[in-house]
Amino acid sequence: MERIPFSVGNEGRQVFWNAETFETFLFLFTAIAxxxxxxxxxxxWQLWVALGKPETRLDRLPERVKALLINGLIQVKTFRxxxxxxxxxxxxxxxxxxxxGAAFDASEFHIAEPLGWAFLRGTFYLVFSFLMDxxxxxxxxxxxxxxxxxxxxxxxxxxxxGKPDNTADDAVVLLLLFxxxxxxxxxxALRIRVTSPSWEVWSFGxxxxxxxxTAIEPEQAxxxxxxxxxxxxxxxxxxxxxxxxSRLLHIITTPANHFxxxxxxxxxxxxxxxxxxxxxxxxxxxxEFTKKQVFDSDACTRCGRCQDxxxxxxxxxxxSPKKLIQDLKTFWLTQAPAAAAARRAVGxxxxxxxxTGGRGIVFKALDRIDAAVDRMGSGTTAGAASAExxxxxxxxxxxxxxxxxxxxxxxxxxxxxxxxxxxxxxMRQYKVLTEADFAPELQLTFRNMENNSNPWGIGSHLRAxxxxxxxxxxxxxxxxxxxxFYVGCSGSFDDRGKKVSSALAKILKAAGISFGILGxxxxxxxxxxxxxxxxxxxxxxxxxxxxVMNRYHVKKIITTCPHGYNALKxxxxxxxxxxxxxxxxxxxxxxIAAGKITLKKxxxxxxTYHDSCFLGRYNGIYDQPRRILRAVPGLKLTEMERxxxxxxxxGAGGARMWMEEDIGERINNLRxxxxxxxxxxxxxxxxxxxxxxxxDGIKDRKKEExxxxxxxxxxxxxxxxxxxxxxxxxxxxxxx
Amino acid sequence: xxxxxxxxxxPDTEAQIRVKPDGSGIEEGGIKWVMNPYDEFGVExxxxxxxxxxxxxxxxxxxxxxxxxxxxxxxxxxxxKGIHIxxxxxDGADAFTTASALAAAIKGIPHDIIFCGQxxxxxxxxxxxxxxxDLLGIPQVTVVTKLEFAGSAVKVIRPIEGxxxxxxxxxxxxxxxxxGLNEPRYASLPGIMKAKKKPVDVKNAAALGVSADGxxxxxxxxxxxxxxxxxxxxxxxxxxxxxxELAKLLREEAKVI
Lengths: 736, 257
Ligand code: SF4
Ligand code: SF4
Description:
Strand content of chain B: 15-25%
Number of strands of chain B: 12
Bound molecules: iron/sulfur cluster
Number of domains of chain B: 2
Oligomer: heterodimer
Radius of gyration of chain B: 22 Å
Structural class of chain B: alpha/beta
Order of helices and strands of chain B: EEEHEHEHEHEEEEEHEHH
Structural class of chain A: mainly alpha
CATH superfamily of the largest domain in chain B: HUPs
Low-confidence stretches of chain A: 379-385
Shape of chain A: elongated
Mean pLDDT of chain B: 94
CATH class of the largest domain in chain B: Alpha Beta
């Protein structure tokens, strides 16, 4: 075919210049690379499906596709951390463009040109050349940023307890990327050195590099070009083949995990439905996770974001969510091959060994290949001893398991949509329900809940004593109210919590809200039992409450405790408790906005608001508390460094409230330090657990003189200035 | 080894106790019933003995229908079977009647060692274990905080004022458990589920051949007097004045010094 010569006005280049008789080889090598890739995926697939209970997440497809596009393609979650986000973005988007470029080249050569439709010409070619160089450069910068970060800057997130967890694979992948791009530029430069058309200035990278090559004779340059071209080709094909066998697999698993993301409310717990006939409960063996939970671990990129804000990790406990997921992955990889083989044996037996159809032949051939590959690799696989290790207490240390506060920082900030908390709860369930082997103080808590429906074990008949002098009616006395004020255990029994309850009750009364309480008919919400692994107890408590609430036809509920709030909202519907649930900060913000209460008395001071995990990350309530505080006259609000979705837990969630904290620093003290660093005099909270923890932190850090922790309701009640002076009974007159 | 653990169902320590208007007993409505905590130490020790040395643990309990729950709790912890002595004639039974009924039930089964709580937290009489041992004609070691099994005997520790006794006692014998003996376990869920299917033999007075006459009779329940309101000592407001006033009140009104 006649080719119109390239010239100014008809810019272009000969695709596959200087690469005569390459086609057969290139196709052959490409086919081999693709086969190695496909085989790797096939083997991995076998491991993905080898173990675990079934869990299909193919409902609500439009939302799943959206998650895939937003977090898999546009990588919104990855960009939330600027440095690694940009670094990864440069590499990812750069590579995407380059792959399209390579596809353009190939289609120009193999399709368009033979048909006389050459399109890489003129301005399009120039822009194309420019973009290819630009994005090549982007990848290069990304790789350099990654090398710098991983090997020189070495942030803690890329390690565990100060020790980097780099593997050889990390370096191989980065060097591979570097090599592909560098050889690409060199090829371009050598071609320009030999052909030197003026428009190639658009290929700025190659153009500049070509200047360095002027000393090379054209013939030599051509030879060098050919060698580099093949190197580039091998590296690129090697990259493809390497994907399933390296950390590059995340190119597939991580987007897949975004697609498979939980569409349930944040931190949702799937209840155990069968207590009667099951032999074991929770997760004691890796196969008791669901397949999706196992797959999670293969989507983890070891990016360390989860660890960076994990209160357990940062306070020196052995738990790191990243390590947990990685340990599960390593363990899975020791367990899965045998399970996959067993599955296959069962499958073969089912299809009949004598099957001679097409499928049968293919599977048999694959089996042989697998066996051969396994023999080759048998020297390198982990020893069988590790396969014997117990999951809970072995692979996952018990101190790790029990250190988790269920704060959800990890899940919220994970760049791969991994769900850590249900795995932790599952393993706790195993320890508590199946083995009944767990901390004595937590056993006491559970007994207290069983006997008196509160964690302290205070007589349940005292539950409504806080309300005695406030003139609050119970639903038994007057069921025709709009809201049930579900007080919760802290609000009923804890001295500090009781003050919050009465502040809220007074606010509601002043605003003319019609509400009642359950009095002694109320029970513990079940959150601590659930997160402490005692789902059986939790369900008992939940059902008892629902029974009472439904008897009074409760529709709307107000809580002061985010734990009760979260449980009522997310767990109760599973057992027939469908309510509209409001946290008191939601209600108070409304009342202020509607002018139903007025905050007139200045409350002076610099305040900071501590986001409770169960309010913020679990339920997205970040704004209302801050809006309320801003409405208080005289009050100045400042933020702690860790806030909103990255807020730092107080240490009380996940039943940790009731457990000893004897490893490392106390989490509440660390959070108190953060408030001190923000210069705040008062820590405002919307959670009775946080209130206790931060009050203790203030005491522990000897700051009682200058600092305090207050609930939003207390601050608002103060600002409303409606407290009647109490006649102090029988007090002595102050001495002169 | 055949181990027996006697248990009693009592109101939870935190429960609000209200005496019936006629003084014939306490109001049972709203009360959470639990296993007597000292009996729980006994059950736990029984289970530990069994786990170490093999054998079987039988729970024996006298009480109304609701006491079955307490038996199930012990079975959930790991005991093997139960005997429930349930007969309205035993309502309000004294220590002697209770011990006689327990003795009659235990006589019918093999027993190498019997555990009781050192006392029940409701009536605090601390007699049932002792009478039971006597009725069975076996030795007893009471208020035990440590127990070691030594073939045909047990070695136990019994704290006394300012010291500890190390006692060796041949089997069969009866041991009453004191706090500190062990930490009772939390029942596992499979244990709770299995407990529902374990055998419990229900027996009445006739079957045991025990009369409910007893030796002691509760005449009347009287609630403790309500605590009087506190007094704030003001005097003339000076520390000295307050101290003098307080001393005077303690001597003349409270008569404690
Ligand atoms: S939930 Fe919180 S405490 Fe638990 S692992 Fe995740 S970040 Fe750490
Ligand atoms: S679990 Fe998520 S956040 Fe943590 S290291 Fe893995 S990918 Fe990163």
